[in-house]
User: Fold this.
Amino acid sequence: MHRALMLSLVPGLLLAQQFDTVTVKARALRGGVYILTGSGGNIGLSTGADAAFLVDDQFAPLTQKILAAVASVTPQPVKFVVNTHWHGDHTGGNENIGKVGALLVAHDNVRKRMSTDQFMQMFNRRVPASPAAALPVVTFTDSVTFHINGDDLVAYHVLPAHTDGDVIVHFTKADVIHMGDTFMTISYPLVDLSSGGNINGFVAGADRALSACTAQTIVIPGHGDITDCPGLKAWRDMIATVRDRVRAEMQKGRTLDQLKVAGLTTDFDARWGKGFVQPAVFVETIYRSLGGK
Assistant:
């Protein structure tokens, strides 16, 4: 799984993906909301009388499979796509789906980053600017609400976590929350420091989503299987705990090399430490987020 996630995040490696073998599946959740899985970030889908509404769109070679999966559950065309952040495994289908009539929407920083060459320090890779047709047409600073399919879909920006353009989408009446990559059920968090990410934002983003939770809320992570609010709370508490441990050790003058072997994540490794983001990398991104050099 961690190799697939690495490939999904680094556009220069996408040729290694065997997209012809990928199956895009639609799974019903509640209130006309579905999760679509394939390769890359999980897609949220709202269906109803008005239009098909997507949260993220994975990779360009998968667009026809994504549209076919949408068509399998609704006759309505895709009219809106909200990107949860700028990474290619969440925005790769923008150009294709935009050309068939969808309005592309994202946070201001998503368009800014997609408009210019980027450098992902974690992978030592330069990511070229996206073509103009792939750029979000509508951007927002704080939040935007879509009144569609009998629901109120609220997309809101949170403090920099995975990137500086992170957006969470709340399908309010369906009681479903799409977290984007501010939450993963398969790994420790990936903090894209070179895209303005910061470990503190993961805690803040989770807290904001949890404030809207009910006992029935379904939570869609950016990667991994769906969960509930207790699952999100466990993730939030894990991050806060390890962050606080790292901070305490930094205050004692411990070096990064010492922190990496201090066992600060040991009690969480069985659940989250076997994915793409290994414990030492997680500790380092916390250290950097807290101002360590």
